[in-house]
């Protein structure tokens, strides 16, 4: 292990990181590559100027320092980077968009902050007047990425099993992606980290309709019904 000589006495540039990162994200991140890439993205975005601050995937793939820190004997650097970005998007740290301009496609990443969400919304509306590289393009197509359902499950519920994987594939075909994401989020908020609970929410939305005004009340009721069902099953068996 190469030792670190310490920070010099001179005043050094700093990278701002929200306190919420240390209280909410850091305790939850259990993959070293994800942590390294997340911190690297904070640093890169802090170097950006202007209204639109984003990171291209190619920037990360061209960063030799980052790639050296990600590569292991078991996992090539490019694979580690891809998996780390998927985990960061699934966790909600980063927003991902696929941008196709003049026939060329690339991946962009934004911090999931108020500013990052505003940028993503503007791009979805086709409002990129502050971004000359898109404003001058002959054709532009943008699509915000949805986290992989298996990554969402592992991030929010637990280790994936073959049986659960099959059920997730069926759910992906049956429900909108944003419903699945929200059902996982509710499972975490209600502290019922079970696929059966998330699936029950999805099924209720399909049968009764998804009304955001009454969703929170219904989700609490779903939690109580689920807990009672689990308790009854425990007594019977």
Describe the structure.
This protein has two domains: 19-144, Arc Repressor Mutant, subunit A (Orthogonal Bundle), CATH 1.10.10; 149-236, no CATH class. 58% of the residues lie in helices and 10% in strands. It is globular. A four-stranded antiparallel β-sheet has the order 1-3-2-4, with helices on both faces. The protein contains twelve helices and four strands; from the N terminus they run ααβαααββααβααααα. By secondary structure, the protein is an alpha+beta fold. The chain has helices spanning 19-25, 32-47, 57-61, 64-70, 77-91, 114-124, 132-135, 149-156, 162-174, 177-189, 195-208, 212-236; strands at 55-56, 94-101, 104-111, 140-144. The longest helix is centred in the C-terminal third of the chain and has 25 residues, at 212-236. Mean pLDDT is 82; it is low at 230-237. Helix 2 (32-47) packs across helix 5, helix 4 crosses helix 5 (77-91) and helix 5 (77-91) packs across helix 8 (149-156).
Keywords:
237 residues, alpha+beta, Arc Repressor Mutant, subunit A, 2 domains, 4-stranded antiparallel beta sheet, 4 strands, globular
In short:
The chain has helices spanning 19-25, 32-47, 57-61, 64-70, 77-91, 114-124, 132-135, 149-156, 162-174, 177-189, 195-208, 212-236, and strands at residues 55-56, 94-101, 104-111, 140-144.
What is the 3D form?
globular
What share of residues are in beta strands?
5-15%
CATH level-1 class of the largest domain: Mainly Alpha
End-to-end span in angstroms? Answer: 53 Å
pLDDT average, as an integer? Answer: 82
Number of domains: 2
- Strand pairing plus helix content: what structural class? alpha+beta
CATH-assigned fold name of the largest domain? Arc Repressor Mutant, subunit A
What is the ordering of alpha helices and beta strands? HHEHHHEEHHEHHHHH
Number of beta strands? 4
Biggest sheet record: 4 strands, antiparallel
CATH-derived architecture of the largest domain: Orthogonal Bundle
Unreliable stretches (pLDDT < 50, length at least 5) are 230-237
């Amino acid at each position: 292990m190469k030792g670190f000589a310490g920070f010099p006495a001179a005043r050094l540039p700093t990278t701002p990181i929200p306190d919420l990162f240390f209280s909410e994200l850091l305790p939850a991140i259990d993959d070293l590559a994800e942590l390294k890439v997340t911190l690297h993205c904070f640093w890169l975005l802090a170097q950006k100027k202007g209204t639109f601050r984003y990171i291209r995937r190619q920037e990360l793939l061209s960063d030799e320092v980052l790639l050296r820190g990600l590569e292991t004997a078991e996992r090539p650097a490019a694979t580690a980077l891809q998996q780390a970005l998927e985990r960061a998007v699934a966790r909600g740290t980063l927003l991902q968009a696929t941008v196709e301009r003049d026939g060329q496609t690339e991946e962009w990443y934004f911090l999931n902050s108020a500013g990052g969400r505003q940028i993503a919304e503007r791009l979805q509306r086709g409002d990129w007047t502050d971004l000359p590289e898109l404003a001058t393009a002959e054709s532009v197509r943008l699509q915000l990425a949805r986290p992989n359902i298996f990554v969402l499950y592992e991030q929010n519920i637990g280790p994936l099993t073959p049986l659960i994987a099959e059920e997730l594939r069926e759910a992906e075909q049956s429900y909108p992606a944003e419903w699945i994401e929200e059902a996982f989020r509710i499972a975490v908020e209600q502290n019922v980290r079970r696929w059966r609970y998330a699936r029950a929410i999805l099924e209720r939305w399909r049968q009764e309709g998804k009304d955001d005004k009454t969703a929170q009340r219904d989700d609490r009721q779903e939690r109580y019904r689920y807990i009672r069902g689990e308790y009854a099953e425990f007594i019977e068996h």
